[in-house]
Amino acid sequence: MASTNGTSNGQKNLSIPLIDVAPLVSPSLQDRQATASKILSAFQTHGFLYLSNLPHIPPSTVSSTFAHSARFFARPQSQKDLLPWTTPKANRGYVRQGREKVSHGMTVEEVAKDRENNPDLKESFETGREGIQGQPNRWPDWEGDAEGKNFKEVMQGFYLQCKEVHRLLMSAIALGLGLDEQFFDQYVVKGDNNLRLLHYPPVKKEVFERNKGQVRAGAHTDYGSVTLLWQDGRGGLQVQSDNDEWKDVTPVEGTVVVNAGDLLARWSNGLIKSTKHRVVEPPTKLAEGIDEYPARYSVVYFCNPDYDRMIEAIPGTYGGERGEKKYPGVLTEDYLVQRLTATY
Predict the structure, then answer these.
(1) Which percentage of the chain shows pLDDT scores above 90?
(2) Is the Cβ–Cβ distance between 104 and 50 less than 8 Å?
């Protein structure tokens, strides 16, 4: 839960802010600026924040998305396997448990070692922007499958709603950095983002007892600009503080968790933090006689600059007291494909 001072319940050196973002659509520049400053400060100090009163996406839409996600993962394994994830460049389709290993490793070898020691305990379904030649989304919209067609419509609609939230947040980040409010608009024209549905199946308590390093999803940073995360009430998400302690990101009803990704950190020349996070054994103790943790679901929207845009440090984030550029320029697609290639 959140505390009354606008932050999550704290632990040493880390308290995640909760920010009301309704003012971001106010006609008053002063109101938008004040909220943008809070968002930038949270990204600079923590890299993570909770947002409430999110425009464009009502709570009923989030509930519907979770319900359709659960029904998809409840399908027979044979059906899900007909929609396989194919390539890092496409990044679309169904991913069986054990295939992906999210990790901070940058090479195939580093991630393979992590996968061998602590495989992730999750399955996922990925979709991207429609209409890209050779990279179709893989939908369960088979002949006679009404639920599959409905699933497709719901997820396509949710994808576009999240795209608008991405644009809104980038405008706030621009204001916070002292840039023109529309600075990032040129970088998010196409909306080369990814919607990911995640299912962490039930897991026996003994799995975590046998391997103290076991996690449901390994420690990693996200790759793009910002990430929107809706989580159910099960818990388990943690972020790493500056002193390397792990802090629970407790589910807060009616909010979305937002974190900065690697490309936003590079854009800001390190002024904004891309923070490591992971999903671990749920914090809730099991009742006596119960030896299995229930399933966990989350919905994640990975926001990226358009794939054909070069990401370089923004003028004003380097030089003088701020020092030199910390990162070389990188093409969005090249960076994302590099990270995804290692992950899979």
Answers:
(1) 68
(2) no
φ/ψ of 20, rounded to 5, equals -80, 115
120 has pLDDT over 80: no
Q: Decide which of 220 and 335 is more confident.
A: 335
**SS3 labels along the chain:** CECCCCEECCECCECCEEEECHHHHCCCHHHHHHHHHHHHHHHHHCCEEEEECCCCCCHHHHHHHHHHHHHHHCCCHHHHCCCECCCCCCCCEEECCCCCCCCCCCCHHHHHHHHHHCCCCCEEEEECCCCCCCCCCCCCCCCCCHHHHHHHHHHHHHHHHHHHHHHHHHHHHHHHCCCCCCHHHHHCCCCCCEEEEEEECCEEHHHHHHCCCCCCEEEECCCCCEEEEEECCCCCEEEECCCCCEEECCCCCCEEEEEECHHHHHHCCCCCCCCCEEECCCCCCCCCCCCEECCEEEEEEEECCCCCCEECCCCCCCCHHHCCCCCCCEEHHHHHHHHHHHHC
Average pLDDT, the chain: 88
Whether residue 232 contacts residue 199, with contact meaning beta carbons closer than 8 Å, is answered with no
Check residue 185 and give its pLDDT. 97
Q: Express each pLDDT in 65-104 by its tens digit.
A: 999 999 999 999 999 999 999 899 999 999 988 765 544 5
Taking 60 as the threshold, does the pLDDT of residue 259 lie above it? yes
CB atoms closer than 10 angstroms to residue 35: 21
| Strands 123-127 and 292-293, bridge-based pairing | unpaired
Interval 282-299: pLDDT, tens? 777 776 778 888 899 999
